[in-house]
Design brief:
The chain is α+β, with helices and mostly antiparallel strands and 319 residues long. Helix content is 29%, strand content 27%. It has five helices and 17 strands. Strand 12 and strand 13 form a beta hairpin. The protein is globular. The termini are far apart. 30% of the residues are buried.
Length: 319
């Protein structure tokens, strides 16, 4: 009899453990589902300054910034000026432009992230977070060009680990440097051959399309950039290697059937690339961001990559 009672007690204990375990699992699932249900998307772009807009979340005011995650119930209003603000809702599958005509705009429940896009939304939020982390010094004002260097420096081509990398192809070259005094002369060389000479009054240029190639059976081809200050006896020399391909960000399978904004995908690819292999892909990432001159997240990314974290030791490269 005692043995039977002991067996019944142990069986009841096992049932209770399974019951409480199931409760914990269901509670976690409900919390996750609730978090997804309240999130809707993000701020994808705006042309004005953050002061031109107002975001209300209940009784609170939410700071305005691109790639800010939005929730159901958020109210977005144009406070000053006529600059619209573009929202990517339903996990990025719905585009809403808030204009003077529909301001204030409230994010409703139909714009929440669908449950079937939960995995894609988790991937998207990670990309948004990576971009914010990389651009934070610029957005917060920690990075400033108030103290411009006297010498010409180009952080894009100054890397202590390995030379900068660029993907082969016919493409314009985007360059940005600091210091020196206008005007400037820029040379692009391959070995002893001058491929391009361009004059500029600014420290940001886009060249004409050029063919950057890799010789057969060679892992890379070296190129050199020379920037001269015509007003002062100053010169910067840096180099980069042209290779056949760059790493690609792994994307979830949901993107095969679900479209997110193309400018967003290009920007997060460039953001991710800039953080790979200790910075050797920053130059290529800058080129990719420069291809989106009207997209605010790409503009900010391009600027933070151009400035670099700090002036680094130059590493020579034969051109």
């Amino acid at each position: 009899m005692n043995i039977n009672r002991q067996l019944i007690t142990e069986e009841q204990l096992m049932i209770k453990k399974r019951y409480f375990g199931l409760i914990l699992i269901l509670s976690g699932w409900l919390l996750t589902a609730h978090a997804i249900a309240t999130e809707a998307g993000w701020i994808n772009h705006f042309d004005g300054s953050p002061e031109n807009y107002l975001i209300k979340r209940g009784d609170e005011t939410v700071p305005v910034a691109v790639f800010r995650v939005l929730q159901v119930g958020d109210e977005i209003a144009l406070k000053q000026g006529q600059y619209p603000i573009t929202l990517s809702l339903r996990g990025g599958t719905q585009t809403v432009e808030v204009t003077p005509e529909n301001s204030p705009y409230q994010v409703d429940a139909q714009s929440q992230v669908p449950e079937e896009l939960a995995e894609l939304w988790a991937w998207t939020k990670q990309r948004l977070s990576e971009w914010r982390e990389l651009t934070q010094p610029l957005i917060s004002g920690e990075s400033s060009d108030a103290e411009a260097p006297h010498d010409i420096v180009m952080p894009l081509l100054e890397n202590v680990t390995s030379p900068a990398h660029l993907v082969a192809g016919e493409r314009p070259l985007h360059l940005q440097w600091y210091g020196g005094q206008s005007s400037y002369t820029v040379h692009i060389k391959q070995r002893r051959k001058f491929l391009l000479t361009q004059n500029s009054f600014t420290t940001v240029i886009e060249t004409e399309k050029m063919a950057f190639n890799v010789r057969p059976n060679k892992p890379y081809q070296s190129y050199r950039v020379i920037v001269r200050s015509n007003a002062e006896n100053q010169m910067f020399t840096g180099g980069f290697r042209v290779v056949t391909a760059a790493p690609e960000l792994t994307k979830p399978t949901a993107l095969e059937t679900t479209k997110l904004p193309a400018d967003f995908l290009k920007t997060v690819q460039a953001t991710w690339l800039a953080t790979q292999e200790e910075g050797k892909w920053i130059f290529e990432a800058y080129q990719q961001a420069a291809e989106l001159p009207e997209y605010r997240p790409a503009i900010l990314l391009k600027e933070v990559l151009a400035r670099g974290k700090e002036k680094q030791v130059r590493r020579g490269i034969r051109g």
